Amino acid sequence: MPPLRGTGSHPEAEHPEYAGQYRLEACLGAGGMGVVHLARSASGLQLAVKVVHRQYAADPEFRARFRQEVAAARRVSGAFTAPVVDADPTAALPWMATLYVPGPTLSAQVKRNGPMSPAELRRLTAGLAEALRDIHRAGVIHRDLKPSNVLLPDSGPKVIDFGISRPYDSDLRTETGKLIGSPPYMAPEQFQRPREVGPAADVFALGAVLVHAATGRGPFDSDSPYLVAYQVVHDEADLAGVPADLAPLVGRCLAKDPQERPTPDEIMDALHPPSYEASAFIPVQRRPLAAESGSGAADEGTTHVRAADGLSPGPGMPKGRRTPRRLAVVATAVLLAAGGLWAAGTRDGSVTPKPDGGADAGRAAAFTPWRTPLRSPSGSTPSCAPGSSGTDSGLYCVSTGFGVARLDASDGRVVWSRRDTSPAAVSGAAMSGRPAYTVVVGGELRAYDPGKGTELWHADLSAYADVPAPAGGLLLAVRRNGALQALDAASGDSRWQRTVPGHVSPGYALYEAGTGLAYVYESSARGATTLITAVDARTGDTAWQRRLDGNLAPAGTSDGALLLTAMNEKAQTTELVSYDPQTRSATRVSLPFRMNAPETLVDGDTALLLERGGTLLALDLRPGTGRAERWRLETAVGMTSAPVLGAGGRLYFSAADGRLLAVDTERGTLLGQTRPRLRDGKLSHASSLPAPVVLGRSVIGTAPDGSAFAVDADGPARW
User: Fold this and answer.
1) Could you say which DSSP state residue 225 is in?
2) Is 315 within the bounds of a domain?
3) Is pLDDT above 70 for 527?
4) Strands of 529-536's sheet, edge to edge?
């Protein structure tokens, strides 16, 4: 639609047609400093573009503050904010483009529907605490958290408007005599000592926001901002109407002394067990499923669903970083014997492959999407892994409280299933002629015949510090005494056990099929150095060993070099290190911004880093190429699985709401995504998500509704 002109009463009534390359389609709203327009990126993503009012564009102080806003917003882009896509603070009319987040503000929601229910309030508390944790980890203080700066999309609360935020290391300081903020949501120190405002001020604002959400008013209420300021500094907060189970926590947030307020992490800890009802923030009736596809199409297409009691008869993962888990989280391990790797997954799973939607009629004969329910009472997400050879078309899936099954990857048919109602059990894959595996909480590894599903052997894992990881025809694991042991994948018998020289308690990182080398690593006590050892998986002999500077973790291999990620003292990834064992030289590539625990894939001379908050970054690994960043993409996904690579330069990953997304790794654009697949409209909590599986032309995802489903890798735009 053409841009709107002259329809607003705000100062910027003459809307510009463009902000940079973005054509402005409609006015979303206006504030004191600028107008927010709806626009679209080249790939079709909806954007919210903030354009500064003309009278402020000539003010050098305002431009400096807008540059700070852009910098702060970029630093915190992720799961709990509207990610920044582009900006130009130097333009005649400075502007900033973020992903458009559909949903009302908290203030509009409360005004329209009244105070939130206790369940909604708990979810809001958890979401905002998690948002503040990430904002503070990025080194930013928001300083203006209030109901109108909280958006409520279906995926959970997002914090917006960093107009007066300040990075910890910013040189731009509040001037004496200037009061910046919204009095009902400002901490006492913002009135008394504005130059000393720290992260605890945001926690105070969170407490005030929660009182508003629970009651429709603030904890300090008056028509006069001066009286509100006096109340904030001197009076006790009015918590009448706040649910009794939350009132003590909210009261602590509103403590006068910043030192007495809880941190965001302490707030989240106090809320366990969490409540994650996806319907909590849905302000209006959901649209029909056919209209909910991320690309505007119907569903990804369906063909059939066959039933069975529990489980009916029915791609290689690329090399990437897989942080070793201890047995405390055995329930989330997924063994991938096929690829020689292991990845984090979640639990879940009933069965009946069933038609899933109308694929393009002209392509139905060439590819038929399918969906197979693997539901279980626990309501978890199934984990799947592929067979490793062209003769093994099996897809091995497990669901907590349900069991393990082999599906036919071509149509979703369940070939065999084995019920296992353990509180948590997750699966592994199979090589041709090798077993499929499950790991059960309590420390037992079970191996199944991939053809018939009969149990072949089982092993007690109580002596191991890690879940065994596939390495060729072996399973490698670090024992609690620090020794590395190899088990025969077919029989479970021990092949060898070695103490790795120089290591006390190494972590297993990855296996490289081409060289037969497995990599273990161990950081020094303070993280100043990391010892890396390459082990011959067949014999346990040390191939090479090197101590490198920094707190490092192996992430993959490229052209004979080992790629490692480097973390700072806050466990944020700051650079990539490429180590060549032939020349014994290390090359370092700095990230353009700090990332929180990204999953890392190596694709030739490119590293792809996917942060759980949805930020995807492509870095050039070639030395001497100048700017390392090739592109970045803000996917607006609140929580992601590990990514996998497919043919045609496509990257796939899953979201917590069951969406499967595809990205073009050459251009850094979103190619398509499936619709959400929630269980009974609810989003269950998971510490990690299963990665999708690529098998030929099929991309197979799993979802919280307990299903495994396949879509056409050649047509992500039609998902």
Assistant:
1) H
2) no
3) yes
4) 507-512, 517-523, 529-536, 542-549
Domain match, 453 and 537 both: yes
State which H helix or E strand residue 460 sits in: strand 455-460
Residues 6+ apart with CB under 8 A from 257: none
Structure-token pair, residue 541: 């002999």
Same domain, yes or no: 533 and 586: yes
Beta strands in 524-604 (DSSP E): 529-536, 542-549, 551-558, 561-567, 572-580, 585-596, 599-603
406 is a domain residue: yes
Question: How far, CA to CA in Å, does 55 sit from each of 90, 370, 702?
Answer: 15, 57, 52
Strand 606-610 versus strand 599-603 pairing type: antiparallel
Q: Is the pLDDT of residue 711 over 90?
A: yes
Contacts 24+ apart (CB under 8 A), 226-229: 228/183, 228/184, 229/183, 229/186, 229/191
Range of the domain at 39: 18-99
Element (H, E) at 669: strand 669-673
Location of structure tokens 């599906």: 407
Residue located via tokens 């904010």: 81
Output phi, psi for 71, to 5 deg: -60, -45
Residues 521 and 647 in one domain: yes
Among 281, 303, 338, give the residue marking a domain's end. 281
Q: Average pLDDT for residues 7-18, to the nearest whole number? A: 51
Neighbour tally for 241: CB within 10 Å? 12
* Number of domains, the chain: 3
Over residues 427-441, mean pLDDT: 57
From residue 388, alpha-carbon distances to 85, 648, 696 in Å are: 39, 20, 12
Torsion of CA 106, 111, 113, 119, to 10 degrees: 40
CB 333 within 8 A of CB 467: yes
* Domain contains 603: yes
Nearest to 377 by CA among 407, 347, 397, 412: 347
- Look at residues 99, 119, 152 and tell me which one is the last residue of a structural domain: 99
The 8-class DSSP code of residue 690 comes to P
Do 429 and 556 lie in a common domain? Answer: yes
Amino acid letter, 352: T
Q: What is the mean pLDDT of the chain?
A: 78
Residues 6+ apart with CB under 8 A from 38: 24, 25, 26, 27, 28, 46, 47, 48, 49, 100
What SS3 class is residue 257?
coil
Domain of residue 95, CATH code: 3.30.200.20
Q: How far apart are CA 566 and CA 554, in angstroms?
A: 9
Whether the pLDDT of residue 281 is over 60: the answer is no
Report the C-alpha gap between 689 and 696 in whole angstroms.
22
The residues near 189 (Cβ < 8 Å, ≥ 6 apart) are 196, 197, 198, 200, 201, 258
Kindly tell me the burial class for residue 412, based on how many C-beta atoms sit within 10 Å of its own C-beta (0-12, 13-18, 19 or more).
Answer: buried
pLDDT at 547 over 90: yes
Q: Is pLDDT above 60 for 171? A: no
Q: Among 79, 80, 135, 73, which residue's Cα sits nearest to residue 98?
A: 73
- CA 376 vs. chain centroid, Å, equals 24
Same domain, 62 and 116: no
Q: How far is CA 260 from CA 251, 253, 575, in A?
A: 10, 8, 36
What CATH number does residue 149 fall under? Answer: 1.10.510.10
| pLDDT tier, 84 (very low <50, low <70, confident <90, very high otherwise) | confident
Instruction: Compute the distance between CA of residue 394 and CA of residue 372 in angstroms, rounded to an integer.
Output: 14
The H or E element that residue 35 is part of is strand 34-40
Tokens of 284: 């209006």
The reply, when asked if residue 50 is annotated as ligand binding, is yes
**572/230 Cα distance (integer angstroms):** 40
Q: Radius of gyration over alpha carbons of the chain, in Å?
A: 26
CA distance 682 to 99: 24
Q: Is residue 60 part of a domain?
A: yes
652-676 pLDDT, tens digit per residue, is: 999 888 999 999 999 999 999 998 8
